[in-house]
Design a protein that fits this description.
Layout (H helix, E strand, L loop, with lengths): L2 E8 L2 E7 L4 H5 L6 H9 L3 H16 L7 E3 L5 E3 L4 E7 L2 E7 L3 E7 L4 H4 L15 H22 L6 H4 E3 L9 E7 L2 E12 L2 E8 L3
Length: 211
């Protein structure tokens, strides 16, 4: 399938999404990895994780980078050596990256009914009982989860609790932008989020709100 979608968010920020239909062997061909990343992929037991990992390297190439331009900090957060910011995501047959001059986060999630069971662990579920049907609730909860994942990736604070520290303001599916905030250790940080849905998946990308 190769590159599935490219989104130019603004002049400094781009999203790249890959639909993973190729074999691991195809994805790995001619892709050079750092020793750290080669060890990581060698240790992966899941074929879909291995394919997802390698598809990310093709997205890096689309953005003008190689695996050698990327490094990970002690918390496992990815960084680019040129000072740009990057966030990475993978879910089943889709992977994605976002690259920007400013801090960002991205998450792709498959829309699944199981999110109804885990929702009380990450968001006040009663806020969404006004939705017309279960499908709409699953869609909305998936957006909220993706938003919180993206914020977690952006700030990189270990021990952050989705339920207690991150709040996504209620929204309608027609809204072009969503709002969220992080309350942590007495400080509030505001975020702006955008999302798109495709083939039963949801992609949410997150920025610090402009003052």
């Amino acid at each position: 399938m190769a590159l599935y979608k490219t989104i130019t968010v603004n002049e400094h920020t781009k999203v790249f999404i890959w639909k993973i239909e190729e074999s691991f062997e195809w994805l790995a061909k001619d892709v050079k990895l750092t020793e750290h990343c080669q060890n990581r992929v060698n240790s992966m037991k899941s074929e879909i994780h291995r394919r997802g990992f390698m598809s990310i390297r093709h997205l890096l190439a689309e953005a003008g980078y190689t695996d050698f331009d990327l490094y990970y900090d002690e918390e496992g957060k990815p960084h680019l050596k040129d000072g740009n910011h990057i966030s990475i995501t993978h879910s089943f047959e889709f992977s994605g990256i976002i690259v920007s001059q400013k801090p960002i986060g991205i998450d792709i999630e498959k829309q699944r009914d199981k999110i109804l069971k885990i929702a009380p662990k990450f968001t006040p579920l009663e806020e969404y009982h006004t939705l017309a049907n279960e499908e709409a609730i699953v869609r909305k909860l998936t957006i909220v989860w993706g938003a919180k994942e993206g914020i977690y990736k952006l700030v990189g604070i270990p021990g952050l609790l989705f339920l207690h520290h991150i709040y996504v303001e209620d929204f309608s599916f027609e809204d072009e932008e969503l709002k969220a905030r992080l309350n942590y250790q007495g400080e509030q940080t505001n975020f702006t989020l955008k999302y798109l849905e495709f083939e039963g998946f949801t992609c949410v990308y997150t920025f610090l709100a402009e003052d």
